[in-house]
Amino acid sequence: MKKIFKKLFAKNRIDLIQQYLKVNDPSILEIGIHRGDFSKQLISKFNPKKLYLVDPWIAYDDFIYKNSWYGNSDKSNQKIQDKYYLDLLKYFEKKIYEKRVEVHRKTSDDFFLTNKNIFDLIYIDGNHLFEFVKRDIFNALKFIKEDGIIMLDDYALKGWWNDGITKAVNFHTKEKNIKIIKKHNIFDYHHQCLIQKI
Ligand SMILES: C[S@@+](CC[C@H](N)C(=O)[O-])C[C@H]1O[C@@H](n2cnc3c(N)ncnc32)[C@H](O)[C@@H]1O
To answer: Is the per-residue pLDDT at 9 higher than 80?
Structure first.
């Protein structure tokens, strides 16, 4: 059943952003980069004034991350994470030189500690556990422009992260910190949630 709705009503993340991001040369922060597939799309579609990419590229030993993209169950994943990081630096070499892309190899918590920039779009796709997403939203609200957009991936999706994204959005909605402007449902199929500060 889910597959049928997906086939009929699937929307892609870039189209969704395009619908709401009305700035010509946006300043964009992406949290959680992995191999940079989405970062490459953000660059080619929105030609941002600057794109900030944040990911620690660490393979974590803790059991809870066993089924995540950054678990370390076979003890070889750190090498793979290092390669993802180096490949990304290579891919964006020219843009980094032109100061159009900044790559920060650190957690989002550490990034926000020293950040002084304000963003038009913040895409949250880092550690998916509730406490981490809750903090990412909390920090994003401090550094998003008044009419800027915060978008979260894997909303309304129960994986190893135990629906942490949905729970964090619910938390901030209840606290009246955010308003939801668009969220996944079976007729609007994308597993994204777009929020703005109240
Ligand atoms: C689902 S992947 C990101 C995928 C990417 N946004 C895309 O769409 O292609 C999640 C990433 O979050 C990173 N990550 C894990 N903990 C993090 C943290 N505390 N802060 C920032 N990124 C984190 C992982 O290393 C991993 O690369």
So the answer is: no
Question: What tokens were used for 50?
Answer: 């600057």
At 148 the three-state DSSP class reads strand
Q: Measured from the CB, is residue 108 less than 6 Å from ligand 1?
A: yes
119 contact partners, CB below 8 Å, separation of at least 6:
26, 27, 28, 29, 52, 143, 144, 145, 148
Identify the CATH number of the domain defined by range 2-197.
Answer: 3.40.50.150
Which ligand 1 atom is nearest residue 81's CA? 25
User: Would the CB of 126 count as within 6 Å of ligand 1?
Assistant: yes
CB of 54 sitting under 6 A from ligand 1? yes
Q: How many Å apart are CA 131 and CA 129, to the nearest integer?
A: 6
56-97: per-residue pLDDT in tens?
A: 999 999 999 999 999 887 777 999 999 999 999 999 999 999
Q: Is the pTM of this model over 0.90?
A: yes
The answer to whether 178 and 197 have CB atoms below 8 angstroms apart is: yes
